[in-house]
Design a protein that fits this description.
There is one protein chain. The protein has 1 helix and 16 strands. It is mainly β and about 200 residues long. The two termini are about 25 Å apart.
Length: about 200
């Protein structure tokens, strides 16, 4: 799920906003633009239609985007899984949750005890706990909750272990027979996080 970048505010990684999905409004004869009756804010474009109207198979289709408030109010989709009998499950894995979180525009699948290396989060201080509430999916052995786009009342707590630099990447450029060579190293800034818990109310 794509969206705008997130920002850290008040010790919590909170989402600024997400792109609204596009919905197709039904076409009606009264919406025809033959008489120049265009509606402000609702663009009119020609798209192929299965109805086969006209010789060219094109009809006047209007497109409108839903608001972010309507998308945020959609309840999450919950699916249950059938547990296969006869399969041995380690005792420490029973009841463990995993989640898909979004940080700095990148999605990570995490569970308790995982180490996450992400782009540097400037506001995160080493030794503090970061609570991520931009959770897109939460799942377990017998149930999955898919957010639309986020899962409400879901959070992932991460301990900030380190603010450091990644391994060096060598950038080498050469043009043969021109006496041109350039060698440059780069180390990106990263933040190392350890997942403490994945929490979802009622699950």
């Amino acid at each position: 799920a794509a969206g705008r970048r997130s920002s850290l505010a008040g010790g919590s990684w909170r989402s600024v906003g997400a792109a609204a999905p596009v919905a197709r409004a039904s076409a009606a004869p009264a919406w025809s633009t033959a008489g120049g009756g265009a509606v402000r804010g609702v663009p009119s474009v020609l798209r192929p239609c299965a109805c086969g109207a006209g010789a060219s198979g094109l009809c006047d289709v209007r497109w409108a985007s839903t608001t972010a408030a309507a998308a945020a109010s959609a309840p999450p989709a919950v699916a249950s899984h059938a547990v296969v009998s006869g399969v041995e499950v380690p005792p420490d894995s029973v009841g463990r949750l995993f989640a898909v979180v979004r940080m700095s525009g990148t999605q990570y699948k995490v569970t308790e005890g995982d180490v996450v290396v992400t782009d540097k989060i400037p506001e995160a201080e080493v030794g503090t706990v970061l609570e991520v509430d931009d959770v897109l999916l939460v799942g377990s052995r017998d149930k999955t909750v898919v957010g639309r786009p986020q899962v409400p009342q879901a959070r992932v707590k991460m301990f900030v272990e380190e603010q450091t630099l990644d391994q060096k990447v060598i950038v080498f450029k050469k043009k043969r027979r021109k006496g041109y060579k350039r060698k440059q190293g780069h180390r990106r800034e990263i933040t190392v996080l350890r997942v403490q818990s994945v929490e979802l109310d009622g699950m």
